Amino acid sequence: MVTIFKNFNEVVEHKTISTILEEIKTGKYRPGIVYLRKSLAENKTEAYNKAKKSLPAFTPSGKFVGGRKLEFLSEYSNCIILDIDKLSAADLQNAKNLAAQSEFTYSCFTSPSGNGLKILVKINSDKANHKEAFLLVQAHYESILKLEIDKSGKDITRLCYYSWDDNLYLNENAIVFASETKQSVIEAVCHPELVEGQQPSSNNTEAIYNHCIKFTEKKVQFVNGSRNVFVHQLACNLNRKGVSLHETLGYILTDFGYDEKEVTQAVNSAYGNINEFGTKETIDKLKKPKTENRQSTTSEADEDDEDKPKPTQIDRLELFLSTRYVFRHNMVSGKLEFQYFGKKKWNVMNDFIENSMLRECLKGRIKTNLSSLRNLLYSDFCELFNPFEDYFFNLPSYDEKTDYITELANTITTTKQDLWQQCFKKWLVAMVGCVLDDKVINHTVIVFSGKQGLGKTTWVEKLVPKPLKEYLFSGTINPNNKDTLVQLSECMLINLDELENLNRFEIGSLKEIITKTQIRMRRAYGH
C-alpha cells in the first residue's frame, strides 16, 4: 500500500500501486492534466503551476500515517521511482521504449507535464538501504537511457503526481532489482555523541538541558505519534551528560508533561542505562577521538545532516507548524484556512486560533512572536488554493456521449423547450467559464416565473455542487452595499429572490452589476 496526498501533506487515502497505475492509464484526472499540458504548451506558467498543485500525488515508496515525514512511514513498499524531466517528444518516446525493454521496469508512464518520464522499479532492500538502492538503480538506468535522472528520488517521502497516460507500460512479472550494497549502519535509538562545536559552554544544568533539547530535536520531533520516543531520547542524552534523574524528571514533566505516567516510565527506562550516566559530562570527553573498535551509531543520513547549515528560527517554526497543521490561502475568499493534521475539516483562521498557535509554539520552545507568526502564515509558506479549479479539474473524465446539460435542462418544462435548452446551456457554460477564467463575463441571466412553492429556489440552489456550497448566495442584493460587492466577487451563483419587487432604478442598477467586469474595493480589516 502507498499513500495519496493532497496539498503535499494532507493524507487522503491509501491504495495499492497497481490501482493507482490503472487510474493513471484510464485517466481518472484527465481533464485537469489536459488543461495543465495545454497551459504549459501556451507558456502559461502560473496556470500550469496552479493546475499541477491541484492534482493529488502519491508516495511510491511507502504508506504514511499522520503526515509525510519519515517518522510517519508505516509500511515500506520496496519500490523506487525515477524521474526524468524536460524531454522532447522524440527523446521521451525513445526513453520510454528503452525503459520498457529493461527486465527491471515494473512500470513507466508520461509525467503530468507531458515532457517527462516516470519509471517504477521494485527492489529487495529495506527502508534503511533505500538511498543506496536508489543510487544503484539510478546508475543502471542512466547507463541504458543515456539521460540524467533526478536525484530527489532517493528520498522515501518523495511524491509523485497523478498523471494520464493511456499507453502506460506495466510488467507484473518484472524482475526485482537485487541490491548488493552493504547494510547501512544502524541508527541508534539514543545518539551517544554530540556534534562538535555545539556543546554548552558550562556545566550549568539548565544550559545542558536546553542544549540536549536542541540536539534531540535534530533526530525526532515532539509531535503526536513520536512523543514517547522524543522524551526517551532526551532523557538518554541528559543521562549521558550527568544530569540527575530527579532533575531530569522535573524539567521534562514541566515542559513535556503530556502524560505523567508515560513520561516517568520513559525517563526511568532511559536512566536504566546506569553505565552511561555522566559519560559525556565534560567537553574534554566529548572531544576524545573514537577508537577503531567503537561501533558507529550514526547513519549516513546523519552524516549528511552535519554538512548542512544549522536550521534557522524560521525553519524550526515552519517545521513545528507543518507537523501539526495544513495551511492554504483561499484565493477566492481571500482568507487563510487551516486543517488540523489528520482531520478533514478546513477552518478559517481567526484571532483566537492565531493566538492559540502562538501559545503552542512558545510551549514547544519555538522562539517567535505574533508578528513573526502572522508574517509567516501570510506568505508563500501557505499554498494558494482555488476551490473552483480544485473541483472542476478533478472531475471524472467525460464520456463524450451523454449530454448532461440537456438532461438537466429537461428537468424543467417550459413553453419553448428548445430555446430553454439553448439558453440554459449558454448560461451554465458561461458560469463555469467565469470562475475558471477572469477574462470571461457571463452576460446571461436566467429568470424563472411561476407560482410560489414550485421549487424554483430549490432547483437553482442544487445547481451548485456540495463542495462549493459556501460560494452560493440566495437573497436580495444592494448595488450600493459593500457586502453585495463582496458576494459578487466571491460567489459562483447568486439567486435573487422576489425579482418582481425591484423598482425601475433598482433594475437599472442590476443591469450594471451583471455587466461589471471588475470590482475594486478594500476588504474589511481582520481575518
Notes on the protein architecture:
The protein is α+β, with helices and mostly antiparallel strands and 527 residues long. The chain folds into four domains: 2-170, no CATH class; 205-286; 318-389, no CATH class; 404-514, no CATH class. The chain is built from 20 helices and 16 strands. The strands form five sheets. It has a four-stranded antiparallel β-sheet. It has a four-stranded antiparallel β-sheet with strand order 6-8-7-10, covered by helices on one side. α19 links the parallel β15 (472-475) and β16. α2 runs antiparallel to α3 (45-53) and α6 packs across α7 (227-240). The longest helix is centred in the C-terminal third of the chain and has 20 residues, at 417-436. It is flat. The relative contact order is 0.08.
How many domains make up the 3D coordinates? Answer: 4
Output the number of helix runs: 20
Largest sheet geometry: 4 strands, antiparallel
What is the molecular shape? Answer: flat
What strand line-up does the widest sheet have? 2-1-3-9
The percent range for helix content is: 40-55%
Binned strand content: 5-15%
The overall average pLDDT, rounded, is 80
- What is the structural class? alpha+beta
Q: List low-pLDDT spans.
A: 181-203, 282-308
* End-to-end Cα distance: 40 Å
- Radius of gyration (Å): 29 Å
* Oligomerization state: single chain
